[in-house]
Design a protein that fits this description.
Two copies of one chain form a homodimer. Chain A is an alpha/beta fold and 327 residues long. Chain A has 14 helices and seven strands.
Amino acid sequence: MSLRGVPTAEVFQRAVDGERRALGRLLTLVERGGAAGDEIAEISHPKAGRCHVVGLTGAPGAGKSTITGRLAAAAGVATGDSHRGVGVVAIDPSSPITGGAILGDRIRMDEVIDREGTFVRSMATRGSSGGLALAVPGAIRVLDSVDYNPVIIETVGVGQVEVDIAGTADTTIVVVTPGWGDAVQANKAGLLEVADIFVVNKAERPGAADARRDLELMLDLGAHPEPGKPIWRAPIVMTTATDGIGIDDLWSEVENHREWLTETGELNARRQSRDRFEMLGRIDELLGAIGRARAQSPVGEQLLKRVESRELSPTAAAAELLADLLE
Amino acid sequence: MSLRGVPTAEVFQRAVDGERRALGRLLTLVERGGAAGDEIAEISHPKAGRCHVVGLTGAPGAGKSTITGRLAAAAGVATGDSHRGVGVVAIDPSSPITGGAILGDRIRMDEVIDREGTFVRSMATRGSSGGLALAVPGAIRVLDSVDYNPVIIETVGVGQVEVDIAGTADTTIVVVTPGWGDAVQANKAGLLEVADIFVVNKAERPGAADARRDLELMLDLGAHPEPGKPIWRAPIVMTTATDGIGIDDLWSEVENHREWLTETGELNARRQSRDRFEMLGRIDELLGAIGRARAQSPVGEQLLKRVESRELSPTAAAAELLADLLE
C-alpha cells in the first residue's frame, strides 16, 4: 500500500509505531524539502534532541562504509533495547566519477547492517551543498524523534562540504589509511580540526605505524589549549574493519567522548552550533527564493539588459536590485 | 617591486600595457572578492565582451590539462597577432583527495603553455561553489578586457558545479576516454546536455571506437529539436593529446562552433545566460551577508535559543527572522 496521500502527521505516527516504510517516506520528504519537509520538521523537532550523532569522514577507499557497518552493529549490541536501534545516513556523492565504487561499498554495508534494529538511508548530494546542509540535519531529526540512537552520518570524501557536515556531529571520526598523508595533504588541517577520534584502518598493512606517528605529531603540533576550554585529545584507534578488528575499541572511544562531552558541557555547545548551522541554511534558502524572484521581475530583467549592453557590471546590477535591503 | 598599494586603476592600466605581473595581481584580487574585486569588475566590464570562451570538462585522468595546453598552443598559432594571446583559467579542486595528481597535471601543462602569449591561471575552489561561480566570470572578464582571446576554462571533474561552470562557456568541450561510460554513469545526461564538442582522448587505446559509438548513440537518443531553435549536433573528435594528434581537428571544430553561434544568434543567448548566472551569484552573495547579519543580531540569537529549547524548528525560526521580507 502506498503512503502517497496519507497525511504527514499519520505517516509520522506510523514511523513512531515502528513501520519502517513510513520512516523511509518521511526521510524522502525531508530530502525533497518544500512544505511537507517543513511540516515534518515541525512535528519532529519537539521530540528530537536525544540521540548521539556520530560523523564519519575520510578519503574514498579508506573503508568508511565497512567501519560504519561494523560500528552500527557494535552500537546496537551496546545500547540493546534502550532505543529502537541505530540510524545511519550515508551521503552519496553527486560526483559521478566514483559512482560505481561507492555504490559497491553501499551494497556491502547494507548487507551487513540493514536489518531489524538498524535503519540505513542513503542521500544523494545532487551537487548542492546547500541542499545537503538542510537535508542532513532534517534526517537526523526524524531518526532521533522516532528513537534511533546513535545516528551515524557517513560522508563520502574529505572535501570542505563533507568535512563541515561531519564536523557538526557530536563525535566526529576521521578515517585514514597507511600512506594517507600525501593523499589528503591539502585538507590535513581541516581534518585535524574536526576529528574527535582518528581511525587508522587497514592497520595490517605496511605503514600503519607511520600513519599513527604522523597523527600523533599533528596532534602535538595542533594542540593549542584555549583558556577555560576543556581539552580533548583525539585518540587513535587501529582497525582492520573487514575482519572487525578494533571496532569494539572504536565504540568504547565513542562512548568515552560522549561522556566527556556531557561532563564538560561541550555537548550543548556542539548542538547549539548545529542548530545555528541549520538555521543559517534555512535563512539562505528563503533569501535565495527572494533573490530569484527579484531577478525574474521586470526590474531584474531590465537590469540584466543593462549588464548585457555593458552599461552595468553584474555586481552593480545586483546591488541596485537589492538597494532597499542594503539600506 | 610589489603591486600592493598601487591603485587598482593603475594596476589595470599596467595589465593593459602588457605587464603580466599586473594581470596576475588583478586576477588575485578578483578571486579574493570584496571591494577591490568590485572595482575591477567596474573597470573591466565595459571593455570586455569580445573573447570566445571555451569550457573544457571531463573526468579526472581524461587528459584535460594536456588537451588544454595543446589547444591553447593551436589557438595561439591560429589567431596569431590579432589578439594579445590565449587565456587559460584552470579550476583546481578543493577536494584534497586527488590534489597530488592534479598538481602534477598542472605543472605539466604550465611547462607546455605558460610562455609569452599565453596566460595560465589556476584557481582553487576553496570548497565554495558560490565563490567559484563569481570568481570564474570575473577572471574571464579581466582576461577579455586586456584582449586575451580565446579564454579556455578547464574544470577538474564532472560534478554538477563543474559542469555548470563549463556549461556557461560559449563552446563547451567534454573529454571522455575509452571505457568512460561506466565511470561517469550518474552524470551522463548532464554532460550530454552541455557538450558542444566531444573529445575521445587516448584514442589509441582499445575501446576508443566503442566510446565513439556510445556517444553517437547518446546523441541520437538525446536529439530533441525544439521548434525554432537552431540545431547543433556535437561533433566527436578523436585525440591522442600527449602526441598532439587530433588537436588541429579539435580547434577547427571550435571555430566551426563559433561561426554557428554567431550565425544563429546563439552567441548572444549564451552570453545573456552567462550574465544572468553571474548576476544571480552576486545577488546570492549580497543576500547571504544580509542573512548572516540578521542571524547574529539580538533577535536572531533569541530565535536560536528558542530552537535550542525545541520550542521552534530552525525552519520556523528562519521564517520568523525574515518575516518582513517574505510579506
